[in-house]
């Protein structure tokens, strides 16, 4: 069975859709799509019908790329007011550990531990113990009499969960699993070095910035700051009297994150809100951008100190704002030269805006492997259809071959 999974990263500015296949512990992207969000404000669903239509539009595009219909997905849940609670559980086993035993011990670990008005998102397992032997990462198939788990229970307010589930199901999709963005981000940026340290992953998004703390690869705390790329765009729009749309264009296509790396000769012409054409040089625009970016990064530094009171071994920065020119130069000044500016390299999603969506697939795959499940969101017939050209494609290829065949024949006849 092929392991093919679909994720939807529901963001305020955009929704990202990714279909990936796990092969040899790597994700190969089969389809990806980004669409502007509607009905989302600060990460929360405010107009369900608009969100449902956005999801339908995005999935329709993905369906067209794949040639089949996506029916099951993983989605991220807003992490506002999320709680991270240490939990433990134990169950008796007979002989070898099975996938059912894993489910039972996870359920035991959260029994009567959920706060009122909170819903479980996931249990991040930090350690499995069999008959007193700790440090077992893949317990399925191991022999013993007693299985224990130590982990972190991630929970969020019920309204965060059910608002997302309702719109995704309203779009005709089945939600197979849910997660929070910080956890997904880590599974995208992780490596063996990070897995052995305490550190921070910061996702600089459009309307919000998330600061997530990890202890040896396990999410232990998180905070969401109500500031992001849109604040940069609003600053540009206000200072120069242009539309928010032009503010976004100036941020993404023209400005630099650091004034030191600007070209005074670079000029951008744009109409202001009263219809006059104004000329802006890169330095003056970049000074506005740099000011807000410094504020965001310094707020992140302050938040890190509030979330954890011990030395950290790494800081990883990702998210759409990291794509602005000269971002790393400003980040080095704020966080030091050891800060890691993550860059997406997977073919098909080479943009940091896809970090969460791809990480969701990696996290889900790891979760299924730990729990001993060989699972795919597509059945055998659908998997075959994905890798087999459609009749339309075959017909189109035949026409192309005929055209080129005639061309070659005509050339040879001359």
Overview of the structural elements:
This protein has 414 residues and is an alpha+beta fold. The protein is 39% helix and 32% strand. It has helices at 48-66, 99-110, 158-170, 181-189, 192-195, 229-240, 244-254, 282-307, 327-335, 355-370, 380-387, 391-413, and strands at 3-10, 14-23, 26-36, 40-41, 44-45, 72-77, 83-96, 118-130, 133-136, 143-157, 174-180, 198-204, 209-215, 218-225, 267-271, 277-281, 314-318, 340-341. Strands 3-2-1-6-11 form a five-stranded mixed sheet, with helices on both faces. Strand 12 and strand 13 form a beta hairpin. Helix 4 (181-189) packs across helix 10 (355-370), helix 6 crosses helix 7 and helix 6 packs antiparallel against helix 8. The model is unreliable at 390-414 (pLDDT under 50).
Brief account:
With about 425 residues, the chain is an alpha+beta fold. Helix content is about 40%, strand content about 30%. It contains 12 helices and 18 strands.
Reading the helices and strands in chain order gives EEEEEHEEHEEEHEHHEEEHHEEHEHEHHH
CATH topology of the domain at 83-158: Dna Ligase, domain 1
What is the residue-mean pLDDT, rounded to a whole number?
Answer: 91
Beta content? 25-35%
Major beta sheet, strand line-up = 3-2-1-6-11
Radius of gyration: 24 Å
- Give a short account of the largest sheet: 5 strands, mixed
What is the CATH class name of the domain at 83-158? Alpha Beta
By secondary-structure content and strand pairing, the structural class works out as alpha+beta
Distance from first to last alpha carbon: 53 Å
Helix amount, in percent?
A: 25-40%
Number of helices: 12
Question: Tell me, what's the shape?
Answer: globular
The count of DSSP E runs of length 2 or more, i.e. the number of strands, is 18
Question: What is the subunit organization of this protein?
Answer: single chain
CATH architecture of the domain at 83-158: 2-Layer Sandwich
Uncertain spans, ≥5 residues at pLDDT below 50? 390-414
């Amino acid at each position: 069975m092929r392991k093919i999974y679909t994720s939807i990263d529901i963001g305020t500015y955009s929704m990202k859709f990714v279909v990936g296949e796990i092969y040899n512990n790597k994700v190969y992207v089969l389809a990806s799509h980004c669409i502007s969000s509607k009905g989302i404000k600060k990460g929360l669903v405010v107009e369900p019908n608009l969100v449902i239509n956005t999801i339908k539009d995005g999935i329709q595009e993905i369906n067209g790329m794949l040639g089949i219909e996506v029916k099951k997905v993983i989605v991220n849940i807003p992490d506002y007011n999320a709680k991270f609670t240490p939990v433990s559980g134990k169950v008796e086993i007979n002989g070898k550990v099975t996938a059912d035993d894993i489910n039972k011990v996870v359920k035991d670990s959260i029994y009567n531990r959920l706060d009122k008005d909170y819903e479980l998102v996931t249990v991040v397992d930090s350690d499995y113990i069999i008959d007193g032997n700790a440090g077992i990462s893949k317990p399925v198939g191991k022999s013993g009499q007693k299985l224990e788990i130590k982990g972190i229970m991630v929970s969020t307010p019920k309204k965060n969960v059910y608002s997302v589930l309702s719109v995704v199901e309203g779009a005709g999709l089945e939600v197979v699993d849910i997660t929070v963005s910080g956890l997904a981000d880590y599974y995208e940026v992780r490596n063996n070095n990070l897995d052995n340290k305490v550190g921070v992953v910061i996702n600089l998004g459009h309307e919000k910035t998330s600061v997530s703390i990890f202890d040896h690869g396990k999410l232990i705390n998180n905070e969401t700051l109500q500031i992001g790329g849109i604040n940069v765009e609003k600053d540009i729009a206000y200072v120069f009297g242009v539309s928010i749309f032009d503010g976004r264009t100036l941020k993404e296509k023209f400005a630099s994150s650091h004034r030191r790396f600007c070209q005074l000769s670079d000029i951008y012409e744009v109409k202001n809100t009263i219809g006059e054409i104004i000329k802006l040089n890169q330095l003056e625009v970049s000074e506005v951008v740099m000011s807000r970016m410094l504020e965001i990064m310094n707020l992140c530094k302050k938040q890190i100190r509030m979330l954890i009171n011990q030395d950290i071994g790494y800081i990883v920065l990702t998210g759409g704002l990291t794509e602005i020119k000269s971002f790393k130069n400003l980040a080095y000044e704020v966080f030091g030269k050891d800060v890691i500016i993550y860059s997406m390299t997977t073919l098909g999603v080479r943009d940091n805006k896809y970090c969460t969506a791809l990480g969701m697939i990696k996290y889900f795959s790891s979760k299924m492997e730990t729990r001993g499940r060989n699972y795919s969101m597509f059945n055998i017939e659908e998997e075959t259809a994905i890798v087999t050209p459609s009749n339309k494609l075959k017909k189109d290829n035949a026409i192309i071959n005929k055209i080129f065949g005639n061309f070659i024949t005509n050339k040879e006849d001359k």
